[in-house]
Amino acid sequence: MKITTVIARFLLGFIFLVFGLNGFLHFIPATPPTGTAGQFVGALFVSHYLVPIFLLQIISAVLLLVNRYVPLALTLLAPIIVNILLIHILMLPSGLPLALVVTVLWIIVFLSVRSAFAGLFQQRVPAEGLR
Fold first, then answer.
1. With 90 as the cut, is the pLDDT of residue 49 above it?
2. Domain ranges for the chain
3. How many CB atoms neighbour CB 36 within 10 A?
4. Is the pTM of this model over 0.85?
């Protein structure tokens, strides 16, 4: 399982590094989507909303590739992956396979560091009094 986790972490980091850098350098040629997806992505692009998203992807990818602060990297990538999934499920189904691969890779890496997230899954946490 450790080899699977290392491979998944590396692939996840590599995918987000490539696509994060592509957001700035545009080395992967792509045609803009049409219809609702095109309008949505166009609005994100024009508003510069994607700049911090690409930066978060690059930062998280580097953290995954150097195997440092992996839980932080997963936390930063989780909402990005959810949005990628929603875009491909609701507006642009052609990219769904890669989105599902990224989701599976994220889950594999998450399961390897799930102890770091143990506090999030507590049903109740005792409140500390004010001092």
1. yes
2. 2-29+46-115
3. 12
4. yes
